[in-house]
Write a structure and sequence with these properties.
The complex is a heterodimer of chains A (119) and B (106).
Chain A lengths: L2 E5 L2 E3 L5 E8 L8 E6 L5 E7 L6 E3 L7 E6 L4 E6 L8 E7 L14 E5 L2
Parallel strand pairs in A: 2-10
Antiparallel strand pairs in A: 1-3, 3-8, 4-5, 4-9, 5-6, 7-8, 9-10
Chain B lengths: L8 E4 L5 E6 L9 E5 L6 E4 L13 E6 L2 E6 L8 E9 L2 E4 L3 E5 L1
Parallel strand pairs in B: 1-9
Antiparallel strand pairs in B: 2-6, 3-4, 3-7, 5-6, 7-8, 7-9
The chains are: A mainly beta (119), B mainly beta (106).
Chain lengths: 119, 106
Amino acid sequence: EVQLVESGGGLVQPGGSLRLSCAASGFSLSNYYMHWVRQAPGKGLVWVSRLDSDGSGTRYADFVEGRFTISRDTAKNTLYLQLNSLRVDDTAVYFCVTDLKPTAASEYWGQGTLVTVSS
Amino acid sequence: SYELTQPPSVSVSPGQTVSITCSGENLENKNVCWYQQKSGQSPVKVIYRDNKRPSGIPERFSGSNSGNTATLTISGTQAMDEADYHCQAWDQSSVIFGGGTKLTVL
């Protein structure tokens, strides 16, 4: 069964850090572009970052401003998002997802992990 | 940066047809997909490549893309279709989502 399971969310103070994990099973992350997408409470989906299938290319939304880093561990088949210098407006559910190509019939989404930035 | 604009909310009576728009500059030159997201759940793709339905998506869901506007149409809307709908496209290797539209079935 194909599955993506995020973890690592929680409550953190402004300026703090968290590392989100996305464990994949039933397929290899190396075969897909992988993305992080976030959704603030009651708001829409917002793309955060992408890691190319070869593991070398990355891309980030403008609002990241060098604070986040996407990476993966091929041996663990796990995707990561390191979140540094967190702000209150980074509060959101963070989803990992494959591909996100509008030409593809489907992709795999995780269930999301909630990051709350608050003092 | 490229933006996709959706109406915040739309309402429809059961059995009627409803359309949700997604506007962007020269959007017809991009491939657009649509996601349905029910409360507390992860998104599910209902339209890809402008007008294609993934396996398992009911025929009442259809899509189009012309000029600056992509449109998701639900014919014979059912109560189970009440959800948030998000359009998505790529621009210069970045993924762009619309702001999402809350569909209420009255």
